[in-house]
Amino acid sequence: MFKGSIVAIVTPMKNGDVDEDKLRELVEFQIANGTDGIVPCGTTGESATLTYEEHCKVIDIVIDQVKGRVPVIAGTGSNSTHETIYLTNHAKEAGADAALVITPYYNKPTQKGLYEHFKAVAEAVDIPIILYNVPGRTAVNMLPDTVIELSKIKNIVGIKEASGSLDQAAEIIAGTNDDFLLLSGEDSLTFSLLCLGGDGVISVATNIVPDMMAELVDSFFAGDIEKARSLHYKLYPLFKAIFLETNPIPVKKALYLMGMIEDDIRLPLVTMTEANTEKLRKVLLDLGLNLKN
């Protein structure tokens, strides 16, 4: 159910507030172009700077707009177990299909602490949970042995793996049951992780090129490995360009250049520099995208 090309959707803003109309338009753009699932309030959705009210509102809007056409995996993680349970419970009550729960950031829990955190969330809220490991943003790396133990909890169904280590991903795949999902958390490693036995990607790039990302993943699973490989190399410059600055600065700038959202991002992040914007613009034009700004 939670396989394929899944978008970590941006939270469009206007004058500093959530732009509901544009968010609904982005959802439609994704579904129309073959995206297999939508993640609101992930890192790319600026979850760290949304208020609780906004966080819940964004999840509600996406669920309402999707109307069951694709799965909604709500980002509900926090560096507080109590807050994580609160947000995860809201996602369940709102009708989300699953929750994406990041490792607690800043406090740097031990592996035992990570296990107990996710166990507590899973026991408190009966909803499918996808773990999210991104040590570059959280300062803690959830090791394969911890993931393997967590996979034995009934409603922990998979992991978004963004450690950057193919070895770590391979250990998780080898040590878990076949029905435990491993989703790439880095666009540039998607093809490699599919080759290792991964199930898809929760993607930043899909915000910009949902059709191409869907085609990459669909081609792989259809057995056309060469086509998937070719699309990987075609999209590789974009995978790098959207991390010229801290995510989601570049992806929001790209969507602005495409005329899809306002050029608005919340402090402490700021809009992309002119020099990097020009680099990004060239990559987008090379992909044949129609820019309006």
Automatic annotation (TrEMBL):
The keyword GTP-binding does not apply. It holds the Pfam family DHDPS. CDD domains: DHDPS. The record marks 48, 79, 83, 105-106 as: L-lysine inhibitor binding. Pathway: Amino-acid biosynthesis; L-lysine biosynthesis via DAP pathway; (S)-tetrahydrodipicolinate from L-aspartate: step 3/4. GO terms for biological process: diaminopimelate biosynthetic process; lysine biosynthetic process via diaminopimelate. Its main location: cytoplasm. Keywords: Amino-acid biosynthesis, Cytoplasm, Diaminopimelate biosynthesis, Lyase, Lysine biosynthesis, Schiff base. Its EC number is 4.3.3.7. Pyruvate binds at residues 44, 202. It catalyses: L-aspartate 4-semialdehyde + pyruvate = (2S,4S)-4-hydroxy-2,3,4,5-tetrahydrodipicolinate + H2O + H(+). The active site is at 132 (proton donor/acceptor), 160 (schiff-base intermediate with substrate). GO terms for cellular component: cytosol. InterPro entries: Aldolase_TIM (IPR013785), DapA (IPR005263), DapA-like (IPR002220), Schiff_base-form_aldolases_AS (IPR020625), Schiff_base-form_aldolases_CS (IPR020624). SMART domains: DHDPS (SM01130). Homotetramer; dimer of dimers. Catalyzes the condensation of (S)-aspartate-beta-semialdehyde [(S)-ASA] and pyruvate to 4-hydroxy-tetrahydrodipicolinate (HTPA). This is 4-hydroxy-tetrahydrodipicolinate synthase. It comes from Deferribacter autotrophicus. The lineage of its organism: Bacteria, Pseudomonadati, Deferribacterota, Deferribacteres, Deferribacterales.
